[in-house]
């Protein structure tokens, strides 16, 4: 009786939807490569919607262990009781399991993916002494940001070669403007202004900047504008602040903001 | 029937109150950047008061784990019983959760914030196999001191770009004088003297000084004066002592104290 | 009554099947050396089929402990109950135990293999205070990729010298073409095209490339073609994407793909 | 009915008693800085006596965790039962809590002090889900030796700036002589001889010496003399031995001992 | 009623049997020094047989703890029950305890040996609060390979000086030939061929080779020959493969094999 | 009714017995400094005998924790039950507690000694929430070898300055000869020969030698001689073997042995 929710808002840039669906149909795992805030999570949400599969997302981190993915025994009434982890639930239910920023996880969590990611499609659960065959519909998707991987934190080649890769960049200006209007509820003019600022920042040599302005920070600036802040105030708080702690770079970004937001209420 | 307590004493310096409230209304997370002892904690207390939300503060540290934030199972009468952590309590109750010095925490504690900090506003609790939607009114605020972040300890870009930034510095002399009178219960003349000393120390090249004199140490010096110590004794114990262990620098600070506190009882 | 499943598809390249079976008959352990994705796992599956022994595979990783291999006590109804690990099950049942990427495991997991790998063929289980004699038919097989072992992660000499080594490379072009046709369900022409591309990439100096294109990624590309993607799209997603994150190298691979897939639908 | 014990023997050197009591009355935390064996512990004992508060001392070390300070659950009769740590006991009882060599503790133990050390005077106990307000009379005192802090082990600025500092050195010769007579039960002449030796050693460039002779080692030498050893034997065992392992430096110290103890029974 | 099994096959090279037995009779501990695969384990088995003592062997590794040697509490039916480790069993039963590759163990495991290895012959079990006197007949034997000890992993001097040392090398050619005939069940001619190859490899400067060919790998090659492989195939798989991963060195070894196995079936 | 056992065999070299007993009577802790195998353990056994106190010895190591010294809770019948560690037993019973090679222990184990080692003579047991006063007769003795302390592993100055130091070297030739006759049950001539060899080795520049020949290894050589080995065989196994793994140094030692044992049966 539950009504299917509307498709998450996602505007395709290239052939990413075809590649995703072809790989999914062939039981191939998928790795999404791209910078932070460019829409990878939203893309997976849209794909899960189109393919009509539940989506289980895991934000990976340094201390994520195999047990966090696969499950563990908990004590209930003097009995130990097994509780499935998110990966096991996805394997049993035929869901799409999305491991966000997978390289943050410890190596053991990536290797546990191997028998799932190749022709075996199996999840061995050593603690239970069983091996699960993935239910039809199960899909494995991981993401990572090639921009800031260190040598220590990288996807192993034997993991990478088990996956089909889809590259993500930032959307084109007109697509990004559409996204801003839709997400921040601001008018096209303001959205275009923010997109031009974002583009200018992305053109900078990244000296001093840790990463360029993502679509996400442009949306946040838009939201502050929608809340009544001036465009300059909004851009300083939502764009310049997150991008740098350096006072010289901050000054430079403030000047760019003044140039690209000329009609803003002076402040 | 409980009467609302008075507003915590906070004097705004710029547009920080507007930016905070706009971001809060838009469900955007907030990062406060600034040196130790400049009033970030007090500011959040005042904002929580104005927005009429409970405030839950967590002092982050090296060994703070996800479980410390989210909760854990404890054994009671042979049963394991789940006990919510402070972040989960804030998510359930629609409180403002303030993570002080968030970069001190282990990486996993910052990544657990991601689904809460973006449009999803969700807290997955893997141990319970559930995902909580944040109650209306929930807000996430973190702080850090850009002055002494190392490469190893820094907020990840994917976390930063999920947040609106507010920069903090020390208050202007007249605001700081007002704060000292209010907090240390000393007269304006003594307060002005301490503020001038603080300003002089902040103008020093920081060679030998670990960090400059914060508003907090000026208040402490004021408190010692209110307790009957001479201004020089108070400044040495509450300002010079915490700032350095180096004997040459200590001597230099002592001379500055003598210059700026000329009318102090000789000692 | 269970019918023996068909032999896993494996085409021999040299005398690897004879060496494996001779070593197995002499109770000698075996180490398979070779790059990722060249067919080591499939080879062991075929050998276990020919020798009519069950196969127990363990994907090794950084946090794999002796207990993960040998077994541990779990709490059930207030009693601790011993649960065999995969190695112990293999020892009791006379199965072939295959430790994939064994150098990833912690040193203790490799040393526990010593009494099993030499003339003793015993598994001491300290936690139970017993020593198991391996059942007839037990065989120990490990694999590793000599290409990316660091000094820190390497098989100890005392472990290596307990094993017979079989070297693996990629199959010859005609064998690889046969594999692609069989596994990806594409025609011989397309398969030959992919094999020629793979060969060309393997001839490159590996500057920029992390590892060369394995048979596995060629199969994945074939699968995407079978799903309706153009050969170029398929090769970019399944071959170039997994091999590099570098934009210059990516461009170079894209040009190679264009050269080797001239008759592909332009895109 | 319990009679208050006598005041611990402590002879003030400067205004340290006034500063301590003023800070205590203002609810300010206190950091004692000074070399090992100069009387910091005894000073805190005397202050607690004068202020009529119980004293709870914790010797900090590398593995001291927050739980060691705050408390933990222990299992009793199948129930977990909370047991307060020393800091929590001090907070509940309004005692003075003295953390000796606080920089030895792990960072988390110092950060847990923050809400206690500033205007909040609160101890959040996350495991219980409660926050304790410090009882009236609670005071926080920490000590450290600036002489041998490494970069890795240092009090964080945000901790230091929450505290009033009191510097300690060794007592003046006449005070130290009085202390030796009182503590070691030797006559003034012997005490003066030991003080002169201690002073001479403190004047040495510290090449080869790890730290200078503290009041504590002079007392120990006095005790051995009181027990019948010759002054030279006593000084070698109690002063030279603890100060160095180097044979050249040992010889130098032995010669100084011979010079400063001329009337000692030859040995 | 149990019949004593036959003596393990061991051919002495020098006075190692006399030294072992003299040290054993004097309750002195013994350290066996020598390369991997030269027969140390077999020697201890033969000595235990001659002295008519049970032998308990422990393969040491990085994660071997004192508890693994001494014992631990396990939970049974709500009670913790002590389970002796192998060292404790040997101490109680007067067995010979052989710690193979002892330097692999953590330092605590070597220090726990001290009171056992000197005149005290005691094993303190702190967890039980008892100290066991070793039963008559108890003997402690450890082995290590001086060739690949790093600075980090070495036997402490205070441990070494509690032991009598016996040096092991590879057997002389005629002894080694006898061993091969006996262990691999091949004829003398084939055995002599393998011994000559082994000797040639041992004469090589070890550039590229990790360690030289042990008696153990020669036996393995002999076993493959007995199974029907050609001598060259056997030597490549059992000798060259375990010794190197380097392709140049592999080629060099292959040429040596061709030279020393001229009458092998060409392949 | 138990008869006091005979005094452990110890021959004094200097005033070490007087210093030990004077410090003990004054409740001062004692640190024994000296090389491995020079008789420190035996000395403490003799002192405990003379002072008629029980002796509790703890061999320190890398993983020794405070809990190992102080005690821990163990689960018995569903109840946690406290079990005293050796230090707590000594404190309660007024025994002498000897921590052998104390610098091997983790820093926390040395800091727990502070309140015991100074005028407080107290052992705080945080887990029990109690503080024990040491029973009369309690004494604390630690030992370490200054020869091989690294910067990382050293006794903290604040620990050292709480202790009286006694230096140990090897005994004089005639004392050492007496010890050998007594301990190894060999005649004076053989003992003198071994002592002369030991002295010669101690005169060597230590290039290549890890440490010099201790009294302990001379005794072991004597024991092998008593068992019927030739003096040369005994010296090679018990002296040269433990001192070096280097083949050049081994050859040099073998030549020295031949020179100093000229009348040995040739071998």
Automatic annotation (TrEMBL), chains A, B, C, D, E, F:
Keywords: ATP-binding, Nucleotide-binding
Domain ATPase dynein-related AAA: 30-163
SUPFAM superfamilies reported in the protein's UniProt record: P-loop containing nucleoside triphosphate hydrolases
RNA-binding keyword on record: no
Keyword Nucleotide-binding: yes
Domain CbbQ/NirQ/NorQ C-terminal: 176-258
InterPro entries named in the record: ATPase_dyneun-rel_AAA, CbbQ/NirQ/NorQ/GpvN, CbbQ_C, P-loop_NTPase
Gene3D superfamilies: P-loop containing nucleotide triphosphate hydrolases
GO-annotated molecular function: ATP binding; ATP hydrolysis activity
Family of the protein in this entry: Belongs to the CbbQ/NirQ/NorQ/GpvN family.
Descriptive protein name: AAA family ATPase
Organism: Mycolicibacterium agri (Mycobacterium agri)
């Amino acid at each position: 009786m539950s009504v299917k929710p509307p498709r998450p808002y996602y505007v395709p840039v290239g052939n990413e939807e075809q590649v995703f669906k072809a790989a999914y149909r062939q039981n191939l795992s998928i790795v999404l490569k791209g910078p932070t805030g460019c829409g990878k999570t939203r893309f997976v949400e849209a794909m899960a919607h189109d393919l009509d599969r539940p989506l289980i997302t895991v934000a990976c981190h340094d201390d994520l262990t195999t047990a966090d993915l696969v499950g563990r025994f908990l004590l209930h009434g003097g009995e130990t009781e097994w509780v499935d982890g998110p990966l096991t639930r996805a394997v049993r239910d035929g869901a799409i399991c999305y491991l966000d920023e997978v390289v943050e996880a410890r190596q053991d969590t990536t290797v546990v993916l191997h028998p799932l990611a190749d022709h075996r499609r199996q999840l061995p659960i050593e603690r239970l002494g069983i091996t699960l065959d993935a239910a039809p519909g199960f899909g494995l998707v991981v993401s990572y940001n090639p921009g800031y991987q260190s040598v220590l934190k990288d996807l192993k080649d034997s993991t990478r070669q088990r996956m089909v890769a889809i590259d993500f960049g930032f959307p084109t200006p007109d697509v990004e403007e559409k996204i801003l209007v839709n997400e921040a509820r601001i008018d096209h003019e303001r959205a275009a202004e923010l997109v031009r600022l974002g583009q200018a920042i992305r053109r900078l040599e990244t000296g001093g900047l840790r990463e360029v302005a993502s679509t996400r920070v442009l949306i946040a600036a838009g939201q502050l504008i929608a809340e009544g802040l001036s465009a300059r105030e909004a851009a300083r708080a939502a764009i310049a602040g997150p991008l740098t702690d350096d006072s010289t770079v901050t000054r430079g970004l403030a000047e760019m903001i003044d140039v690209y937001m000329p009609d803003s209420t002076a402040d």
